[in-house]
């Protein structure tokens, strides 16, 4: 996890400053990288779609990044922003106008050159309600978004094509996260003619400008990516071919990986096999560990007694033995004391949170008028290890007198209960916990802790709404000047510290990603636990047994 | 015969209608919102409502169901909420794999089950009989997930005789078929044993023995064809049993059938796929039962279709 701390404060500010006017030189290539070869990777679940406007699960997230490009991207394996399809960009002093100059000669997989019209088309398409894109909300700050969302018009007034290689975005408010928004998959550029040709089936026939192009898709069996020989980024990708085999149980995938039949088992190492793998030095050497932009937490419904009392929420925070829960999942996480994960800019290293203290928790409960505890319900997802974690939480709560009955349900049912004001007193977020869309502290606020998310069907399951903090968050996000990013991160730290004083959540842990690869795979470790690509940076990895 | 078939087909349509109504109602009552799954966590309430309107999910149950049934009548199963593809296309692409797995499983259960039952009946009361019956009991009661992983570990990982999961060649088919067939094999062994013991007590067998016919001839020419009848009639009904098993077995072996499709759809509340797979499964069960009923009089002339 510390690996990514470099990206957090100083480096991201530096990168932003450097990039304000022009793209930095192409990043240095790995001198050991070899060209050619193919790999096989496996997933349990079938890939739903490869349309960047639609795809929003962790299988297709990294695949889409290799088929498409956006105006912005991140340096491989880090959270440092860099221009991608944009050659340079300019932010107006008021922070409300972003102008991007595009690279010349970038071609779609169908051979046509990408222009600014394609950028506008792609963003308009995601914002258009007819596309039913889960990413539409990210463009809320663009001028004209409300009219498009309401179906009054089809094009965003704030996105203008200045010339074939220049596109301008006008925002209704200064938005410090806008460059990140231009890097997420929903902003990736698609060719209009191919989208119109395939209609709703574009997701099965993706055409982008990315390092790989789709060669084959046999539903329910495999997806094959082939190297894009015309890729604008010279020297990439290294691999000639990637075959994704789907429908493989994680345990079966691990057996195949151990036998050398496949190169990457992307569902990770099954919990039952984790210790066995890590006890074998040869296998352990092939496991890469990295931090994720993830936090697992317990929400307490602040609108529901007795959790409407801050002392009760603080007591719960003190009652949870986080170290034991981390042990329960084979130490595949680090204990958390605040909403932000350690690899996120704005993480407050000095913050200590609530220490595990049963006596103090009991005292707080007594102060709150519950000396003998109370009865409540804890909702959790019904797939391993979440019921086990919920039981550990249940035991911890019992030790301070809180008798929680566990409601282990399917994911969709827990989400539905959380989005209902009177639905769930407590929820363990495991399996549904927040993984950031982009590496910016604001991404952990709005939908899950801000007032905007505390609505029926929303994701703010603690129904916590602090108008002061909403105002502070808006103020922080209006600081678009890259030179002030340090100051902005500090503002965000203060916001999360205040949230922890109100304790709508009991943060439990930040998951670590463990990727096991075959012995033949090469490339820096952080390409296998890439926090933005979630988790493999296919463009930059390579195999050692070619040439 | 034609009148019988006509009546059965009419019944089948009514059953399918009932299945569609019940499944649709259950999914409607489910405390989970498919629109939230589509809209994602960053969606504003307006976006959510917009999608709900577009999908017609803001309409009352009766209208939603009527729309579904009318497009179903024209052969349209709709589009997946999550994958956005035609449900028909998704099911058609996966159905051959599931049918192949079922054929493999039927072969496994018939061959293994009947052989075990036959041997047990002939060696009735012996240690062989008892161990075969214990084995059949284990077959019936062992969880398929465990059987699948065990077979994979022994025959694919350790011995390397078969591939570790996947799809494509006959070698890929063996272990999943065996896993799915083990349960049926257990039942068949027990049924075959009692049926065979019954037949061996009959007068015509005694007569054959008295005639001095060879033991082998008595068993295979006189006893087996009669003992096998009630067992064969069961095969059609098995298809219904398999439908539950394929979800597990396809998962373990990475078999690209409709079981995996259904499982993923359930997780994501992808109603059009859940409906589609349920209706296709119901069709398979109805057809299986129909075949079993039609074939029965040919195997045993004492049975008459009415």
What does the model show?
The complex is a heterodimer of chains A (547) and B (306). Chain A has 17 helices and 21 strands. Chain A is of the alpha+beta class and 547 residues long. Chain B is an all-alpha fold. Chain B has helices at residues 2-29, 34-39, 45-54, 61-73, 87-122, 127-141, 144-158, 170-200, 203-211, 215-227, 229-232, 235-253, 258-267, 271-299. In chain B, α5 packs across α12 (235-253), α12 (235-253) crosses α13 and α13 runs antiparallel to α14 (271-299). Chain B has 14 helices and no strands.
Write the layout of secondary structure elements.
The complex is a heterodimer of chains A (547) and B (306).
Chain A (H helix, E strand, L loop, with lengths): L4 H15 L18 E6 L14 H10 L4 E3 L6 E3 L2 E6 L5 E6 L13 H12 L17 H5 L9 E5 L2 E5 L7 H4 L10 H7 L13 E7 L3 E6 L13 E6 L3 H10 L4 E2 L5 H9 L1 H4 L2 E5 L2 E7 L9 H10 L2 H7 L4 E3 L22 H10 L7 E7 L4 H14 L3 E7 L1 H8 L7 E3 L5 E2 L10 H4 L17 H11 L7 H18 L2 E12 L4 E2 L19 E2 L4
Chain B lengths: L1 H28 L4 H6 L5 H10 L6 H13 L13 H36 L4 H15 L2 H15 L11 H31 L2 H9 L3 H13 L1 H4 L2 H19 L4 H10 L3 H29 L7
Please tag this protein with its features:
heterodimer; A: 547 residues; alpha+beta; eight-stranded mixed sheet; 17 helices; 21 strands; 29% helix; B: mainly alpha; 14 helices
Brief write-up:
Chain A is an alpha+beta fold and 547 residues long.
Give the helix level of chain A as a range of percent: 25-40%
Distinct helical segment count of chain A? 17
Shape of chain B: globular
Portion in beta strands of chain A: 15-25%
**Mean pLDDT over the residues of chain A:** 91
- Class per helix and strand makeup of chain A: alpha+beta
Determine Rg of chain B (CA atoms, Å). Answer: 24 Å
Instruction: Work out the helix count of chain B.
Output: 14
Q: Approximately how much helix is present in the residues of chain B?
A: over 70%
Distance between the termini of chain B: 8 Å
Largest sheet of chain B: none
Biggest interface between protein chains, with counts per chain?
A: A-B, 57 and 56 residues
Low-confidence stretches of chain B: none
Major pleated sheet of chain A:
8 strands, mixed
Which assembly state applies to the chains in this document?
Answer: heterodimer
**Average predicted local confidence, pLDDT of chain B:** 88
């Amino acid at each position: 996890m510390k690996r990514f701390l470099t990206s957090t404060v100083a480096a991201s500010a530096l990168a932003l400053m450097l990039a304000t006017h022009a793209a930095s030189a192409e990043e240095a290539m790995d001198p050991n990288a070899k060209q050619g070869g193919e790999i096989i990777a496996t997933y349990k679940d079938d890939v739903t779609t490869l349309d960047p406007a639609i795809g929003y699960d962790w299988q297709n997230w990294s695949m889409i990044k290799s088929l498409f490009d956006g105006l912005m991207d991140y340096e491989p394996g880090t959270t440092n922003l860099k221009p991608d399809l944009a050659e340079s960009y300019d932010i107006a002093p008021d922070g409300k106008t972003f102008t991007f100059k595009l690279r010349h000669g970038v071609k779609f997989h169908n051979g046509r050159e990408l222009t600014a019209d394609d950028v506008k088309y792609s963003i308009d398409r995601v914002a258009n309600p007819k596309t039913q894109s889960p990413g539409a909300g990210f463009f809320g700050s663009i001028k004209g978004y409300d009219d498009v969302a309401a179906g009054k018009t089809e094009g965003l007034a704030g996105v203008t094509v200045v010339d074939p290689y220049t596109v301008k975005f006008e925002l209704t408010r200064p938005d410090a996260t806008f460059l990140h928004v231009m890097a997420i998959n929903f902003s990736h550029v698609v060719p209009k003619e191919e989208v119109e040709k395939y209609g709703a089936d574009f997701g099965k026939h993706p055409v982008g400008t990315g390092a790989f192009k789709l060669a084959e898709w046999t539903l329910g069996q495999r997806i094959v990516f082939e190297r894009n020989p015309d890729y604008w980024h010279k020297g990439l990708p290294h691999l000639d071919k990637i075959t994704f085999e789907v429908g493989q149980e994680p345990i079966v995938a691990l057996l195949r990986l151990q036998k050398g039949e496949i190169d990457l088992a992307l569902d990770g190492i099954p919990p039952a096999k984790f210790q066995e793998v890590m006890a074998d030095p040869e296998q352990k050497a092939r496991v890469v560990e990295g931090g994720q932009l993830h936090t697992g937490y317990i929400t307490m419904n602040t609108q529901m007694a007795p959790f409407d009392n801050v002392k009760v929420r603080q007591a719960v925070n003190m009652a949870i033995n986080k170290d034991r829960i981390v042990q329960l999942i084979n130490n595949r996480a680090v204990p958390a004391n605040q909403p932000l994960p350690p690899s996120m800019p704005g993480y407050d290293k000095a913050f200590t949170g609530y220490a595990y203290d049963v006596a103090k928790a009991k005292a707080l409960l007594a102060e709150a008028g519950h000396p003998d505890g109370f009865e409540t319900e804890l909702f959790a997802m019904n797939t391993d290890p979440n019921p086990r974690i919920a039981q550990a939480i249940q035991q911890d709560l019992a030790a301070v007198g809180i008798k929680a009955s566990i409601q282990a349900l399917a994911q969709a049912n827990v989400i539905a209960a959380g989005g209902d004001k009177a639905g769930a007193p407590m929820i363990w977020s495991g399996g549904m916990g927040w993984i950031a869309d982009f590496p910016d502290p604001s991404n952990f606020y709005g939908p899950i802790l801000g007032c905007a998310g505390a609505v029926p069907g929303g994701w703010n399951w603690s129904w916590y709404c602090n108008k002061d903090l909403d105002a502070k968050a808006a103020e922080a996000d209006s600081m678009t000047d890259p030179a002030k990013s340090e100051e902005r991160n500090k503002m965000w730290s203060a916001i999360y510290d205040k949230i922890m004083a109100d304790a709508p959540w009991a943060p439990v842990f930040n998951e670590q990603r463990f990727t096991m690869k075959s012995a033949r795979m090469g490339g820096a470790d952080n390409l296998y636990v890439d926090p933005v690509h979630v988790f493999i940076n296919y463009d930059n990895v390579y195999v050692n047994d070619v040439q | 015969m034609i009148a019988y078939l006509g009546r059965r087909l009419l019944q089948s349509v009514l059953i399918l209608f009932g299945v569609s109504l019940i499944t649709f109602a259950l999914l409607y009552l489910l405390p989970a919102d498919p629109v939230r799954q589509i809209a994602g966590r960053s969606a504003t309430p307006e976006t959510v409502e917009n999608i709900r309107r577009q999908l017609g999910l803001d309409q009352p149950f009766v209208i939603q169901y009527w729309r579904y049934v009318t497009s179903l009548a024209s052969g349209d199963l709709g589009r997946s909420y999550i994958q956005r593809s035609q449900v028909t296309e998704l099911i058609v692409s996966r159905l051959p794999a599931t049918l192949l797995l079922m054929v493999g499983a039927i072969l496994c259960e018939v061959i293994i089950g009947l052989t075990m039952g036959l041997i047990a009946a002939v060696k009735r009361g012996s240690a062989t009989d008892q161990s075969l019956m214990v084995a059949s009991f284990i077959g019936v009661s062992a969880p398929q997930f465990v059987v699948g992983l065990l077979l994979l570990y022994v025959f694919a990982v350790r011995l390397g005789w078969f591939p570790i999961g996947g799809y494509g060649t006959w070698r890929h088919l063996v272990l999943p078929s065996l896993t799915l067939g083990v349960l049926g094999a257990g039942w068949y062994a027990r049924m075959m044993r009692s049926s065979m013991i019954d037949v061996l007590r009959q007068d015509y067998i005694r007569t054959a023995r008295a005639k001095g016919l060879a033991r082998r001839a008595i068993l295979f020419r006189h006893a087996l064809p009669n003992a096998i009848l009630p067992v064969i009639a069961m095969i059609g009904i098995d298809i219904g049993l398999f439908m539950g098993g394929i979800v597990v077995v396809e998962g373990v072996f990475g078999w690209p059938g409709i079981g995996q499709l259904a499982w993923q759809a359930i997780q994501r509340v992808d109603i059009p796929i859940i409906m589609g797979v349920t209706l296709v499964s119901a069709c398979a069960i109805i057809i299986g039962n129909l075949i079993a009923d039609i074939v029965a009089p040919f195997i045993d002339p004492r049975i008459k279709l009415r």
